[in-house]
Structures are given as C-alpha cells and as structure tokens.
C-alpha cells in the first residue's frame, strides 16, 4: 500500500488530494475496505473516513472519497491550518479483518490564506489622487512663487545696503568728489640776464597782435645784477 504525493503545501481555503494505491497478490474478488487516518504532531492516529471496494463515491462536508478499483482517492475540502499533519491509508481485508496494512505517511502543510484586496477600494483611491497635469501645474506655481520671493528679497537687500551707506555719511558732505579746475601747462624759459635798450626797441602795432600768438614770460631779477662787458663800456662812455 503506497500513498502519494509525499508532501503538499497549500493555502487555507483550498483543497488537498491524496491517492492510495493497493496491490494484492491474489485478487480473486475478495472483499476489502480502505480507511483514511490522520496524525497531528505525532499523536495517536484518528480515523477520518472509510470506503469499501464496491462502494460508490462518497462525499461529506469535509471529504470526497472515490474508488478506482486499485486506486483510492481522498479530497480534503475547505482547508484550515488545523488540517496540517500526516496522513496515511490502511487496507483491511475480509479474511484478515484484524490486520491493517498501513501505507507510508504524507505530510500536509496548510498556510495562512493570502490577504484579499478589495477591488472596489482601488478605483476610489485612484479617483482621490489628482491627475498628473494638476500636479504639474501646482509644481509650476510653487516654482514661480519661489522665484518671485527671491527677487523681492534681493531688491530689499540692495535697498537696505544703499540706505545704510547714506546714513553713515556726515551732514553737508556730498558723496561726489570735488571737481578740480583743469590744469593748464605753463612752460618756463630761462633767458638769463636781459638788457633793454631804448633805441633798439621797436614798437609793434597792436593790430598785429593776435590772441592765439600771445605768449607769457616770467622775468626773474636776481638780487645782485652782474656787470657784463657791454654794460661796463656804456658806463665808461
């Protein structure tokens, strides 16, 4: 007697199916029945269901039993986590009613049911979220407001600094520098000692003088005038 599959891992709420295969050396139409057992945490086995060779399929709220001659099938419905444990089948023949031929153990593990998402809530959440273009418009408005605030702050800062500079100046003092009169270049020529002779002086008509040709000369008289040879001759005469 063999039982398969050897292990099943299923979520709660589903169903588990095991198959028990029997082989008899001399199957001459003898009667036999098959029992299904469950062990929880290696405790004493509990009989779950029974089906004989000639019985039709049976169904209860928890199990579905099917007989396919040498293969028996059991389907466990509406799994719960307390259905986890070890299952096996036992064959009982008519000529040896007190003897049970047990199969190997198969392990069933029932996990927690996956959380169900409410499909009706998702559209509501999507409707509650603003569209993408509204988000873009709001972002643009925030950026523009930030630029305006920065410009106002810069203007106020410059104005405050200018006002502070004006307050630091004393009364009656202008910030502008005094304009100096233009500098006129004056050339100086050293003519040495000049002697004036009356007879050699020639008068020039005032009409000949022009403003553009006017020149200025600075005559420096020394404290003691040296006597030149020419002046000595004149004094002797």
TrEMBL record:
InterPro entries membership: Ig-like_dom, Ig-like_dom_sf, Ig-like_fold, Ig_sub, Ig_V-set, PDCD1
One Pfam family linked to the record: V-set
Keyword Transmembrane: yes
Gene3D superfamilies: Immunoglobulins
Transmembrane segments: 133-158
GO biological process, one term: positive regulation of T cell apoptotic process
PANTHER family: PROGRAMMED CELL DEATH PROTEIN 1 (PTHR15264)
Protein name listed in UniProt: PDCD1 protein
């Amino acid at each position: 007697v063999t039982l398969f599959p050897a292990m099943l891992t299923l979520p709660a709420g589903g169903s588990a199916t095991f198959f028990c295969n029997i082989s008899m050396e001399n199957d001459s139409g003898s009667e036999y029945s098959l029992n299904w057992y469950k062990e929880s945490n290696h405790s004493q086995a509990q009989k779950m269901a029974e089906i004989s060779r000639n019985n039709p399929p049976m169904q209860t709220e928890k199990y579905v039993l099917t007989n396919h001659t040498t293969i028996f099938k059991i389907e466990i419905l509406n799994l719960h986590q307390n259905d986890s444990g070890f299952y096996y089948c036992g064959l009982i023949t008519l000529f040896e009613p007190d003897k049970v031929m047990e199969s190997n153990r198969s392990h069933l593990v029932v996990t927690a049911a996956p959380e169900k998402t409410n499909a009706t809530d998702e559209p509501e959440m999507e409707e509650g979220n603003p569209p993408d273009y509204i988000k873009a418009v709001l972002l643009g408005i925030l950026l523009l407001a930030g630029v305006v605030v920065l410009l106002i702050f810069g203007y106020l800062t410059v104005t405050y600094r200018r006002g502070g500079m004006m307050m630091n100046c004393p009364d009656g003092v202008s910030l502008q520098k005094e304009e100096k009169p233009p500098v006129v270049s004056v050339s100086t020529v050293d003519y040495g000692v000049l002697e004036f002779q009356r007879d050699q002086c020639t008068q020039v008509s005032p009409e000949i003088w022009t403003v553009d040709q006017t020149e200025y000369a600075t005559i420096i008289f020394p404290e003691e005038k040296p006597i030149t040879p020419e002046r000595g001759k004149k004094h002797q005469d």
